[in-house]
Amino acid sequence: MSRRTIGVRVAGAVLALAALAGAAAGLVQLRVETTVDSFLPAGDPAVTALGDNARTFGGDPIVVLLESQQPQGLLLGDGRLPTLMRLEGTLGRLPDVATVYGPATIMNQLAITSQDMLARLSGTRDGLRAKAESEAKGKGLTSSAVTAAGNAAVTDFDRRYGALLVRGLPAGLPTTNNPGFVRNVIYDSSGNPRPRWHFVVPAPNAVSVLVRPREGLDEAGTRRLVSAVRDAVGHAGLATSRVTVTGVPVVTSAVTDEAVGEIPLIGALAVVVLLGRFLLAGRRERLLRRLWPLAAALIGGVLTLAAFGWAGVPMSFGAIVLLPLLLGIGSSFPLYLGMVADRRKVVVMSAASAAAFLSLAISPLPFVRELGLALGLGVLLTVGATLLLGRRFAPSPPEPGKRVRAVGGVRRWVLIGCLAAVATTGWAVLPRLEVRASPEDVARGLPALDEARYAEQVLGSSGEVSVVLRGNDVQNPAAMKWLNQAQDGVIARFGDRLRPIVTAPDLLGFLGDKPTSGEIAAGLQLMPPYLTSSVLSPDGTQALLTFGLKLQDLGKQAGLLDDVRASLPPPPPRAHADVVGLPMAAARAYDLVRWDRYPANLAGIAAAGIVLLCGLRRRADALRAVLAAVLATGWTIAGLWAVGQSLSPLTVALGSLATVTAAEFTILLLDDARPRRVVRWACATSVLGYLVLALSRIGLLREFGLTLAATVVVSYLAALACASLGRRAGSGKQATAPLKAELVEV
């Protein structure tokens, strides 16, 4: 062996080790996030309003639902309220917490405010008496007259405020150590929680603590916060019969944990499944030659994940589905390279596949755009690895075949016409398919969603939506009147689907229907800022009516929220009102995805078609590939409609996904006779790769994998139909085989 050869091999080994180290470093830096933001249209006004609201009042809460065996068992009894108060204090001191609302802190704040009010009333009364007696002494009146003047001065005061104190404090001094005071404030005469406190005391035997995270908390921070909340509750020492920690942050954190755990498992399973497929195929070939297609696809997938890590761009579900999809699709490119005489055609096909995937970038949902970018980059890197390794392991391609005359026949054209009719039906019914775009749909199959639904039964709701009034001053009489009217209107029309959680009219309801500016200011001084800050911004420019609603179909939810917005009365001068919240943003995402069906499906077909038209020598082959993609997409949609299956944000752009396999299979079947067996193996490989996703615990990914597996089979059938219109073949006999026989062979 010459020195030059040794030097080349050493240099190659060093470069390979450097690439391996770089890939490992990128994988270490890879972040997986499934935050709510990844399911919402970035930059949309509904999402912007949600962020603005979170900055002022905190994000969607982590809900700690505590239940006891006995009614009122968590608030009344020796040491129970102080224990709960310590827990709420601990939660409030956690990093990344904006505020905490709980019954113990509310009671403590009300007690302090009541004591301050009593002190102010007592001081005011004493001041009135002292002033009157001083004036009487200055006039030289007798001591009895001085006393009478003092009594007369406080008579009006006692007449006005005495009865109020007697009615308001029938249970004695306002202190958390007084069970009568706690019982009178929280519960009514029958022992049920008063409506205004339902958001923290939803049932006689249950209390809830709402932990609102700061605005803009990332996925890592959310996971740490959820874990810290669980730890704090576990060490609180409360006598509970059941503890449920739920809320949107908890659900998204659970999805992220599941995603992170499934990345190596799903990826490894895909490798094992496809490894068996490659070991069984071509057993007369050397082992390395059989496995190099899988190695090339694995290199492309790992490099793609590493690229996201190096770029500092987090991934969501793309991190899970990337390896199964690339191993299923990418491992076919090395097979094509060894079986197609014109290797340029393989490069053009791969570029068309990457373009089809990249077309997902038009999706309004960030996680779908990210998946398209990852798959497009993965295909290009896989083809690059294929070309690099193919010099050593790929078999020599065959000689090009001769193109024969396209085959006709009445039965063939009748069959193709019927298949085209089915595809047309599929494209026509596309708008009728239901689309699920709710963040909650992602968690289907996970215990976190079951806990959220249980908490919904106790709390009466699982999501929050707020009517926000914004203006220079929303604490004036006109604004308070509007808030009362808006709340009454929403409850009157939608009370069966929306329930008030915490609102400014409820907290200031003791002021009556028409409070003056002075009475509003005095009322706000009487209420603890801890409570008023949940419905009024500190600068007095925002006021909230927060309602709870249940998990429901997004289409119905979107209609409900549109009706709520339309029902609001005209806002006061120089003010405007809006409906904000995660349900509103999710409904907006639903609308965008729902109206994006045709562009989402046609974009991938168009992108791949343009690449094929520009890159292939025969334009007719590109047109047949496009036709196959149109047929495959239409057939798949028709099948989904026939079985009553809905679309998800991942499958709503089915055309972009079907184009990849349909176009590839068609181009190969038009090349010559030899690739037909390779195409069948490629079809089987893709199906196996996609079916691995069916083992995911995340319902969205299970459906995605099953749908794509069916799409690959349909793509193969569409490719057979379109390739029958004209094919290169080694012999005229193969080229003239009827389409029916080809379908039977499949």
What is the spatial order of strands in the main beta sheet?
2-3-1-4
What's the count of strands? 10
Helix content: 55-70%
**Uncertain segments of ≥5 residues (pLDDT<50)?**
403-407, 727-746
Q: Briefly note the structural class of the backbone.
A: alpha+beta
Summarize the main sheet: 4 strands, antiparallel
Amino- and carboxy-terminal Cα gap: 50 Å
Average pLDDT figure? 80
Please state the CA-atom Rg, rounded to the nearest Å: 34 Å
Q: Could you state the oligomeric state of the chains shown?
A: single chain
Count of discrete alpha- or pi-helical segments spanning 4 or more residues: 29
Q: What is the percentage of strand-forming residues? A: 5-15%
- Count of domain modules: 3
Explain this structure.
The protein has 746 residues and is of the alpha+beta class. It folds into 3 domains: 61-246, no CATH class; 252-440 and 592-745, no CATH class; 448-591, no CATH class. It has helices spanning 3-29, 45-57, 80-92, 103-138, 143-168, 179-186, 219-234, 248-280, 287-311, 318-330, 332-339, 343-358, 366-393, 410-429, 439-442, 447-459, 477-494, 504-507, 517-526, 529-532, 554-567, 582-594, 597-615, 619-643, 654-669, 675-691, 699-723, 732-735, 739-745; strands at 62-67, 97-101, 206-213, 242-246, 402-403, 463-471, 499-503, 542-549, 575-580, 728-729. Strands 2-3-1-4 form a 4-stranded antiparallel beta sheet, sandwiched between helices. Strands 7-8-6-9 form a 4-stranded antiparallel beta sheet, sandwiched between helices. Helix 1 (3-29) crosses helix 9 (287-311) and helix 26 (675-691) packs antiparallel against helix 27 (699-723). This is Membrane transport protein MMPL domain-containing protein. It comes from Amycolatopsis ultiminotia. Belongs to the resistance-nodulation-cell division (RND) (TC 2.A.6) family. MmpL subfamily. Keywords: Membrane, Transmembrane, Transmembrane helix. The chain crosses the membrane at residues 263-280, 292-311, 317-339, 346-365, 371-389, 410-430, 598-616, 623-644, 650-671, 678-698, 704-725.
